[in-house]
Amino acid sequence: MPLQPDDFAWLRQHVRRRSGLVLEQDTAALVETRLTWLMREEQVADVTALLARLRAQPENSPLHQRMTEALANHETAFFRDASVFESLRSTVLPALLARRGRTRTLRIWCAACAFGQEPYSVAMTLAEAGLLITGWTVRILATDFSTRALVRASEARYDAQEIHRGLTPLLRQRYFHQERDGGGRINEQLRKAVELRPLNLMEDFPPEPPMDVVFLRNVMIYWDAPTRRAVLARVRRMLHADGYLVLGAAEAAPLVEDGFSRHLIGQTGWYRPAPVPGVVPVATVDERSQTRAPPRVTP
């Protein structure tokens, strides 16, 4: 039985609440396709039976999580939008290193890391700059709401097509251990530089020291305006006053009242925190304080 209008309306509301994803009215067929593997795993006859099972379970059940993950788009690539990483290498990193000379600490957050290509691309950029073997304390935090995606990111194994998409032969040689099937695994130096954690951007963020750079790319295009504004407000609280936010090329720029100003760096737009009239900034955790972090995701 195909997806019924009442069931689709319930699913749209449910998914938006859990992940911020807005399912348009004309995506019912696509939704059914993406849920096919879940129907198979649950051994149900059709999508109607799957949704009936979902409605009978509490929202925090594993089935609800798997359903939301099935509808998410984890499409990504190494060094996706190469100009972003060129700007990071040539302009953003030198500026941050000059300003962080006293603490010699650098924190970067990839806020929707999917299968890990983005944070590992950041790690390669820092490694090429020598920052992973110097006296600097470098932290690359990578989060995603999908536990399936995080497990794959922690394994750091990619097939031949994924490795050849966006990576030069030199980077493949330096940072991958080749495997028999033509794919490869990220080397230990880069894997150790990336800390993977589960985090749903729809929820309050745990206390963290301020971040120097936040990558929030190609995720807000799936959200409506109220969701974007709420998440941007939380992200702004996570940024150093002189930090940087980078979004996807196709995403709407933050408004002035969101507290960001746009700066063209190279060929890409980067965003810096700006004062918001009438808004008192929320205090962040001091860099010297100790916070109890959730456990790392391990393969």
UniProtKB/TrEMBL annotation:
GO terms for biological process: methylation. SMART domains: MeTrc. It comes from Corallococcus sicarius. Its EC number is 2.1.1.80. It is an enzyme of class 2 (transferase). One of its GO terms (molecular function) is protein-glutamate O-methyltransferase activity. Pfam families: CheR (PF01739), CheR_N (PF03705). It catalyses: L-glutamyl-[protein] + S-adenosyl-L-methionine = [protein]-L-glutamate 5-O-methyl ester + S-adenosyl-L-homocysteine. This is protein-glutamate O-methyltransferase. The keyword NADP does not apply. Coiled coil: none annotated.
